[in-house]
Amino acid sequence: MPAQTQAGDPHHAIVAAWRAESARLVGALTRMTRDVALAEDLAQDALVAALEQWPAGGIPDNPGAWLMTTAKRRGIDHFRRADVLRRKVAQLEHAGAGEEGTVPDLDDQVDHIEDDVLRLIFLSCHPSLTAESRAALTLRLVGGLTTAEIARGFLVSESTMGQRISRAKKALVQSRAEFELPTGRERVERLDDVMAVIYLIFNEGYAATAGADWMRPDLANEGMRLARMLATLAPDEVEVLGLQALLKLQGSRMAARLDENGAPVLLEAQDRTRWDQLLIRRGLAALRRAEEMAGRGRPVGRYFLQASIAAQHARAERAEDTNWRRIAALYDVLATATPGPVVEVNRAVAHGRAFGPDVGLAVLDALPDDALGDSPLVPSVRGDLLERAGRHTEAREAFTEAAARTKNDSERLILEGRAGPV
């Protein structure tokens, strides 16, 4: 949806327009120039022009169109300068008569906004890039975040993040990544990569892996925005709708995940009146659309199944009303569809709630000792199940081990609290 014109603070209008339009802008310019780095430079030039001109001249009626027109003009100027340089070099090298460079006619190119943004998302998540680089580049090119904002979200210096983004762009050039939508099996595989990156961004915001903060809401909100954008661009994909539903349903709990003093609150102790009911309604609506498609024979996967699990929590007015047997059954299906140690740990939690802690411990004990390396997840879940089983000494040992493993300060405080006084 194009940015809305608003009276008032020009700087606020510029920020809003950039956040709303940057993905379309960079996507269209990449299609026109076939150079993602140049496209971003041209978009940034348009942003700088807005910062210079809008405070004095007023906010344009259509900010997005203004930015696109300005960027196109900068692009035409760039290619004209490059063309002049080529001609001078050719003359110096005694090039053959009649040779001329070509300046792309950016104004005559047809805009395909939705396809451009989708192409840009696929390009940002190219398989030649690491997961970390894909996330950073997606936030930069599609999310419109600054390097400093991305760096803060992932707890690295601005220079480190700048280098990561720069290397990612170079890797795209070296791999000769095409700015085209993949088809067939490649499209399915790449769409999985895109969704995985969006989920990674959301998860890092919802439950930070390191640092002092329990959550980083800006990253979580950006993950939800990217999922919504992807669902708009690919509305017939069950898993895309599942991802949108999952992030909205989980994101609805964020306000309740901290108490009035800023201390973390676990799911079962949360004040559910603080859950965002609008996000829940939207998440459940996305899930219903996915269910309708699944009912017509469309395949489902991990995001649809996780959204179905999240919906069970969202529909329970009180923690004790949660249908844990249904959740355990869904985790059994998820473990078959996408097996992995994280799924098994969560399955242990569900079976422990549904059928008793000993059943959950049996699921957990089936995992190899090094299933998740030095992650705190296994010992923290083991501690919870042992505590519920009345095995308090063993539970304390497990929570102490988990506290020693975590890199997140808030999580460490929770685990130390559950372990009890030394």
From TrEMBL:
Alphabetic keyword roster: Sigma factor, Transcription, Transcription regulation
Residue span, DUF6596 domain: 190-290
Domain called RNA polymerase sigma-70 region: residue spans: 21-83
GO molecular function, one term: DNA binding
Residue span(s) of domain RNA polymerase sigma factor 70 region 4 type: 120-172
BP terms from Gene Ontology: DNA-templated transcription initiation
Family that this chain belongs to: Belongs to the sigma-70 factor family. ECF subfamily.
NCBIfam families: sigma70-ECF
Protein name as annotated: RNA polymerase sigma factor (Sigma-70 family)
